[in-house]
């Protein structure tokens, strides 16, 4: 006796805004007439937090697990107890996307390492204890509404041994080089690419590669305080081998939508912001941090009262490593 359950949303891309209505049908296909004790559908949205054991220890991290924050929790009965006929049966549904309790707002969908914001529909077909109940889930995405774009704020940066955060004695052993670049804007929308250019003026050693790294910073609260961790999202190589000097190399990075989100600051957790554009030069196996920084505060598509929406939490690193 096989039962196939599918939750079909009316919107193909499964992207919704706060205040809209998520609607669709639950389709159940039965190979034979099937008895059930009721069909229910639940709408759930939550923020799941995990404490890093690097900050509070393994046992403390397990013991002081942070309670999930409920954003949506609605239920409806699609059908009372009865029988499902052979073939396909459809049950329509709709839920308003409104958060009635604190924090009284719906955060953007985000899949991080220590912070996860998810929204899903769950259908349960209840059956007697002799027959196994059937459950099906379907995730969908919440996004902030588009807003008027801010004018671009171009930022220029320069990397050389003099800008490295090293002592004068340590700088003596560093090969001479000069790298400059431009970011097209410090205000970036998470649904649009991050662009700019980098130029190698001269180097004493051959360059192996130039890479752009995207990093997120997540902060979670616990009994002992706050756990703050930076994790890599993606790493993109923009140049390979010893590049031609004084030639602008374009920077073009598409931000992975589900793994990035606007800067979010609440009393229990925080995603970003990273307030410095950190340039790092990789010479051999040593990482040298550049002393000059420029602020990067990307703007997403919503601004609300008291919320820092739209600042993407990323750190761009221009990496150069010498050829072996």
UniProtKB/TrEMBL annotation:
Q: Which Pfam families match?
A: Vps26
Q: Where in the cell is it found?
A: Endosome
* Gene Ontology biological process terms from the UniProt entry: intracellular protein transport
Question: What do the Gene Ontology cellular component annotations say?
Answer: endosome
Q: Which keywords annotate this record?
A: Endosome
Per the record, the domain of life is: Eukaryota
**This protein's record includes keyword Transcription regulation:** no
Q: Which InterPro entries match?
A: Arrestin-like_C, Ig_E-set, Vps26-related
Q: What is its main location?
A: other
| General function of this protein | Component of the commander complex that is essential for endosomal recycling of transmembrane cargos; the commander complex is composed of the CCC subcomplex and the retriever subcomplex. Component of the retriever complex, which is a heterotrimeric complex related to retromer cargo-selective complex (CSC) and essential for retromer-independent retrieval and recycling of numerous cargos such as integrin alpha-5/beta-1 (ITGA5:ITGB1). The recruitment of the retriever complex to the endosomal membrane involves CCC and WASH complexes.
Summary of subunit composition and partner proteins: Component of the commander complex that is essential for endosomal recycling of transmembrane cargos; the commander complex is composed of the CCC subcomplex and the retriever subcomplex. Component of the heterotrimeric retriever complex consisting of VPS26C, VPS29 and VPS35L; within the complex interacts with VPS35L. Interacts with SNX17 (via C-terminus); the interaction is direct and associates SNX17 with the retriever complex. Interacts with SNX31; the interaction is direct.
Q: Name the family the entry cites.
A: Belongs to the VPS26 family.
Protein name, as recorded: Vacuolar protein sorting-associated protein 26C
The organism that produces this protein has a lineage beginning with: Eukaryota, Metazoa, Ecdysozoa, Arthropoda, Hexapoda
